[in-house]
Amino acid sequence: MITISLCLIAKNEEKTIGNCLESVKGIVDEIIVVDTGSTDRTTEIVRQYTDKIYHFEWIDDFAAARNYAFRLATQEYILWLDADDVLLEEDQQKLLQLKETLDPSVDSVTMHYHYAFDEFGRVSYSFRRNRLVKRARQFRWHGAVHEYLAVSGNILNSDIAVTHRRINSHSGRNLAIFEKRLAKGEPFTPRDLYYFANELRDNGRYERALEFYHRFLDTKEGWIEDILATYNKMADIYYRLGNEEKELDCIFQAFRLEAPRAEFCCRLGHYFLRQKEYRKALFWYKFATELERPKESWGFFHEACWTWLPHLQLCVCYYHIGDVQKSYEHNEVARTYRPDDPTILSNKKLLEEKLQPQE
Length: 359
Known about the structure:
Serine Threonine Protein Phosphatase 5, Tetratricopeptide repeat, 359 residues, Glycosyltransferase involved in cell wall biosynthesis, alpha/beta, Nucleotide-diphossugar_trans, TPR_rpt, two-stranded antiparallel sheet, Spore Coat Polysaccharide Biosynthesis Protein SpsA, Chain A, Glyco_trans_2-like, 11 strands, globular, nine-stranded mixed beta sheet
């Protein structure tokens, strides 16, 4: 059986850190928390789980803080989490089993990251991350903001999921760090350009976000998944700005790069639905339902596009072209994913009434 150090950095996380540590306390062999300047009860709560609390002077560099935490680990493997992450009971059991059976030749274990959820508590946004790494390999974090852990060697893709339980709203902290670096004239890597553009977009600064998305694309050095995500986010911005021509161009650029993804098929379907070109919209939504999600991809997936959304939109399309039976069938498929969705339930009632034999 392997041994595990949990390494976590935190600042003012009193609302979440207890749940995080509670979810792994019986699994990991060591808990290391690096505090970067808390003024609330964070360290008081942490002391209920470990005495290995260290302080790190914040220098606007997440990678530096995480690398410091990694250097303090003493066990064979290092698990990293954020203070607002948890392992649900099912995933706790999976991690325990992995701990008992993991081949020591494995250098890194990836896990799903369930990052966002819909109004019914179902996963709406997910991706993979390297989560459990062999300490002896001395893997290091890179990047002041939106840092990443560079790993190599024997990598195992597990079915374990880490669940993100954000409580605090977006603070603008990451954007401020990027702005400071930009003002100092620090060079931005392609990855920096991409994540800076994301922060600008998330803060509603759409025109400037587009500028930096284009600068990222112009480097021609980005990770393919980041490039695809860029075209998706740019298409969304152009949609918000009412520029349908450029919205379409982004979608088609993505099709040139990679086999169609459900996200882009749904976006194109939505374009034709807005134009009331229902048969064209129907084609793209139907295509989305037939796609198989790339199994080995580390990309970001909008779960709705791969599950219920195209079926709900097919319900709309078929209704408008007069095929009530097909409309009902696709609404029923959507209902299997969202049984409590009021829109889907309203559709069901309306369509069942229309399908009743006329007396």
